[in-house]
Amino acid sequence: MVVANVLLVPSHDLYLPIHSLVHYRAQVIKQKAIEDIPLPSSQYSFALSDPSICDLDHYTSKVTAKNLGRTEVTLVDSHMKGKLGVKPQSSHIYVVDPDVISFSIDRGNNWYLQKGVDYKINVRLSDAFGNQMHIPDNALFHTTLSNDHFDIIEQSRNGTYFHVIARKSGTSSVKSSLVSIQDEFGVEHPFSTTIAADQELQISDKLEAHPYIVVFPYQPNKPYTYQLRATGGTGSYSWQSNNPRVGIVDENRGKITTGEIGETIIRVEDVYNSQHFALVHVYVLEPAELHFGESHVEAELEKELTLNVLLHGLDPKTQKLMPFTDCRHIPFNVGVDDVTIFRHLRDVPSEIPKYGRGCATVTLKALSIGDTKAKIQFNRFIDAIDISAFPPLVLSTKYQLLLATGSEILVDLQGGPRPWMKDSSKYFTKADPQNKKYVKVFGDIKSYKLHCSKQVGDVDIIVSVGNFKSKTNPLPVISKATITVCCAVPERIALNTRHPAAKPGLPACPSFVHSVFYGYPSLILLTAYGRCANELDAEEQMFDSLTSVKAKYDVDNEKLLTVKPSDELPNEPNKLTAAANPSGKSGTAKISATATIGDQKLLTSLTLNLVGIAVAKPSSILSVFDLCIEGASLDINIKVTDVNKVKIIGSDLVEMNALTPLRIQVLDIDDQPFSSHDVKMMDLDIVSQLDYVRLTPLNLLEHHARGVSVGTSSIVATVKSSTGNVVRSAPHLIQVFSPLRLFPEVVPLIPEAVFQFEILGGPIPAPELYFNMTKSGVVDINSIGLIKSAKTLGEVTVTAVVTNGKSKDIISQDTAIVRVVSLAGIRLVLSSNIVEEGDIISAHIEGLDQDETPFAFGGAEYPF
After folding, report:
1. Which domains does the chain have, with CATH numbers?
2. Which residue of 2, 129, 467, 802 sits 20 to 30 Å from the alpha carbon of 74, by its own alpha carbon?
3. What is the percent of the chain with per-residue pLDDT over 70, rounded to a whole number?
4. SS3 label, residue 788
5. How far apart (Å, rounded) are the C-alpha atoms in residues 33 and 16?
6. Count of other CB atoms within 10 angstroms of residue 816
7. Whole-structure pTM over 0.85, yes or no?
8. What span, in angstroms and rounded, lies between the C-alpha atoms of 864 and 148?
9. In the Cβ-directed half-sphere of 434, how many Cα atoms lie within 13 Å?
10. Nearest CA to 187 among 63, 70, 64?
């Protein structure tokens, strides 16, 4: 008989090293509660079977191991002494030498750990036979853990228990050695042999699966495959699905393939520690709602606009809408209200959006400036979104500006996103200097004035154009441009004359020529050159603004010329201008200029030649002599003339999709045409007022006009005379008409019958038609297409011809076949063969041959 309600603690056998101290207790179970029995007591006490192995302190109930060996601890109940069949509670103590240190860790006893997780690490001790030893509180272990890799929450005094949190990923180790055992008197007893061990461990980032929820539309004929990603852990993963009917997953790669409607959970775990895992919820649902997702709704001209498509499925359990992760296989119908503004690019594959929200994309291309709507449809679901196309952002200045200190320049903005159609108040433009120490910005909306301070330096100015975020434009496009402005002091100045613009086909006036006409004023230009202070080794460049520079001019011979500052080029701040007024005499004058920039003065000069204009008579002979060869000369006839008028020669009619030649003549005052070589210098321009014809140049003076749609276009040619006046031709009208057509194409007639052709197309008003026949004596036809068959049977081809009325050139024609046949017989054809009383039916007569309709004999001279 065993007393079940009294317990010995500890009740199991213990393996102890020498000098270990163990506290034994007795407990009693009362009404499912456990209570300690105060010891010593009159009823309970402890006893040892071999006091030579261990000492027992009866007052404290502590046992001290003294010598190697075995003994038994017994809980003695004085009330049970002498009762047969009652076995007292007992356990054995084995005093042995320690041999091996080992380690254990909770959460699966696996040394692949995860950052951010708490662990409990224990140091264990075994004897030579592998028996697990009890480590007493009076044992002392020297145990170390890396402070870089662990935060210690709690640890035991003897160094055998640690509660830690892994804080840093990487490889580390736990090291421990048994140092000594301290007896009850405080005396340490070191071990003669070193017992030590270490355990390597690896800490990795937390294992996570991305994304943790994926939703797909149910498409049995085209299932979806999707690559799941895992991060953290050791990098070796195993994947499994708990419902393969909904989705199967590649065990090693993590690629899922959808199946039936429903839900499955994908578990990814670390191959080296299955306690480290993450879950992915996979849903396969029926589509329930369609929208455009959050995306850009503005695009620059000639660039693509990618719209996100947001399709939802309905979770049958929660009745909540869930956005699909991937819906690229859905056959969406995409349209644009105005296809001249945006065009749907069907060949661009749909993608999972890289920004915003959605499960697929549709791509449009911006063709012209404007606002319109894009629409998308799938089954009964439909949605529309406002979209806008804008021109690229262009600045009126260069993107790198060199300004004299204190000067300013005007920057005009063109293009960029337009005010949003739903809320134009969100529109903005900005010009922000990165450092206001050097440049200040004034102005707003489309024009900004950049003003350099008096300090030398450079700064970037960020120009931004766009709209602020709004409900209908959640991801507005911001066009940006960067202007680098350098404020510097010029190193030198230069004077020059303003040369006339180069004429087409002629070289420009050389920059080193400083000659002006003494008959009227000329413009003198002052420019400055230098470099930015932080680019002293850079090439010299011309300043872009000199508005703060003051210039003074002097002339050495004021009888020939006077020079005064002027403001004739306000839109060219890179030049200072002065008016040079000659007295009407030829000669040479030296102009000196002094430019003042702050405290600095720069000097330069220019020698100006005052000359007259060469004059030639309208017609003369130029003789060229070879001065070195006797009798060698050449006479060249020279004619000086000007443009008098311009003519366009060509047909005024053209069939649609046909070509007609046009020739341009530029005539002089003698009505003689200029050569194409001369016309090259006259800025010839040919303009079609309407788009009914398309002009294709063959050379400078010859073009082809192609009719592209029915209507009348006006074509005008212009040239510039030697004085700069524009000379225009009289408008040349070209009518584009539909091709001439005869109906029907085949006409069967009996002899001596009459039939009228239906004539379509041709010019308006209808011109006179000419009919040609391949054979005479079969039919007669007049100018309006009325046919009369003769008595002779046969077949003839009739050709209707329209000419231009001048050169009789054919501009359109069509053919038909007329057959004169003998009527073999007739038949009566009723509209119905079954009638009721009171019904009305129609009847007509046909010939027995298939082509012999009532028209074949309805106009005969002797009708039925």
Report:
1. 6-95 (2.60.40.1080), 98-197 (2.60.40), 208-285 (2.60.40.1080), 288-390 (2.60.40.1080), 394-488 (2.60.40.10), 492-501+512-611 (2.60.40.10), 643-737 (2.60.40.1080), 740-864 (2.60.40.10)
2. 129
3. 94
4. strand
5. 30
6. 20
7. no
8. 119
9. 11
10. 64
